[in-house]
Give the backbone structure.
Amino acid sequence: MSRRAYVGFTLIELLVVVAIIALLISILLPALGRARESSREAKCAANLRMFGIGVHTYAVENKDVSCSGSFDPEVSNGRDGPVDRIGWVADLVNRNVAFPAKQLCPSNPARYNQKLGERAAGSNSYTPDQARDLISRGYNTNYTQSWYMARTEWRPSSRDYNLKRVAATCGPLRLSCWGRVTDARIPLLGDGRTDIDDLVLGERSVKTMTDGPWDGPYGTQNYRDFGPAHGQGAAIFGKKQHDRERANVLFGDGHVRVFVDQDHDGEFGINEEVVPAEQRDLDEMLVFDGVLSLGRRSLDAWELH
């Protein structure tokens, strides 16, 4: 009787197979990660488009005004009011048009708005329990509003140079009053900048609204509080501590555009060394950054000309 020869893998063959599998995994994982992040970025853009529909719905009901204000309860400092009654988030939630607390940007490292912080609104700040209640009822977001949408332009007769205050400005933007600027260039909402030292309920948060004109009431718009939330690049250190590099921004005509943090500092900053200041990352042909009634940048941050 002949003995059947035993056929099997040698140790070297097994090691080769394992090495090939490991190589394939190392090739596939980044591709799967990119595909997953691309899906999240698309979901974020869809959220913003839905908010845009809500903004226009609100405007139809309210004499073309885009919103009731910003997500800012600090009335003791001239801001808007309780976030469950005033501001773009309340406008959407209270009309059952959209639900920003559920429709969060899925890639942003931050999950909350900074104004829900325990000391974020002076004497009008919310306690942690109040913040949790507001979040559970839908009054939260990790998107940032543009100063244009909430304030439009400085009101000289106010003689108030704190441009975050309601009384110092013309108030929320009217969608029919773009001045000399096309609505396709006016940003309304976008992915928010996040810093590790700005915490809400122990987690990082996003800025509530961009700062508006820089260096004076007619200065170049400062968009530093918009920030990258998508893509993966080299790690950003300092207060940011994440690796995102792309941001979605919603414009007045309802379209959403992606912008890249060109200098990789975790924000969309301006070059303050030139006059008037210029954008470092945002394309000035696509994003308006001047005075709406003028239709361009003023040559002086303190005088309209």
The chain has a mean pLDDT of 92. The chain is about 25% helix and 15% strand.
